[in-house]
Amino acid sequence: MGVQEQLQIATRRDAGRVILSLEGELDLATAELLAQAMQGVADDSMVVLDLERLTFIDSTGLRGVLAALERCRERGQEFAVTPGPQQVQRLLGVTGVSKHLRIVAAGDEVVA
Amino acid sequence: MIASCARSPASEDAPILRMSLERNPQAPSLARAAVAGFSDRAEIPSHDLDTLSLLVSELVSNAVLHSDAPRPCGIELCARVLSPGAIRVEVIDRGSGFSATPRDPTQPIGGFGLYLVEKQATRWGVDSQDGTRVWFELAGPASD
After folding, report:
1. Three-state SS for A61?
2. Parent domain of A93
3. Interface test with B, best of A3, A4, A33, A58 (most B CBs within 10 A)
4. CATH number of the domain that A73 lies in?
5. Is residue A46 part of a domain?
């Protein structure tokens, strides 16, 4: 399975925010796709990672999320994630990373 | 001598998974898929599968990222059932080993892999003879 089948990232913009929707697995192979997607969203005031259709994340995937947060800090952008499925929530919780992330509601209710 | 899976104290009929993985970024995903298929046959409860997949992914990612073995050397993955619902997984690589410190406080990002193994496995350990063998066991429903 190539990385493109393993993770798809869709980008949409809405009211000055850009929402990157991740579908599939975020791990060692696919974290690079998130880094690439982050390069294309340098001019938006806020970046939201929609994690609702993430089927798997591990610590290397988490590192990708934290790298995205760091990019946003460097560029003066706001950054948030949606809660994601249980496996994602569990990993964010057990690592303590959720405390450092702004978590917003999923889907169309994503509001600043 | 090639490192291989430790002999099973369990019944010879207990399901065993063995696979060799190339040392590349796709290895964790392939390992997860294989272990998910194996856990079906091994009757691992589905609520343990998330933990199993995560820990397998962490160990194989570590082997890909941190091994000092030459590139052509692969990674060996073994899983076997210890008792109904309990499983042991070993990830073996030819590197000389790495410090089994769960989390390095000087690194704000990263080092979560072994931290997660320590936190979520029933038992785990590292043997550094003939390469590096990192193993963990999940005891099954009773441990939850």
Report:
1. helix
2. 3-103
3. A58
4. 3.30.750.24
5. yes
Domain count along chain A = 1
Q: Is the alpha carbon torsion for A10, A13, A14, A17 positive or negative? A: positive
Assess if residue A45 is contained within a domain: yes
Residues of chain B contacting residue A93, judged by C-beta atoms under 8 Å apart: none
The secondary structure of residue A92, as a DSSP letter, is H
Residue B120's CB is within 10 A of a number of other CB atoms, namely 19
Please state, rounded to an integer, the average pLDDT across all residues of chain A: 92
Residues of A in Cβ contact (< 8 Å) with B53: 56
Neighbours of A40 (CB within 10 A): 12
Predicted-complex ipTM score: 0.90
Q: Using a cut of 0.80, tell me whether the model's pTM lies above it.
A: yes
Q: Tell me the C-alpha to C-alpha distance, in Å, between residue B89 and each of A63, B12, B72.
A: 24, 16, 23
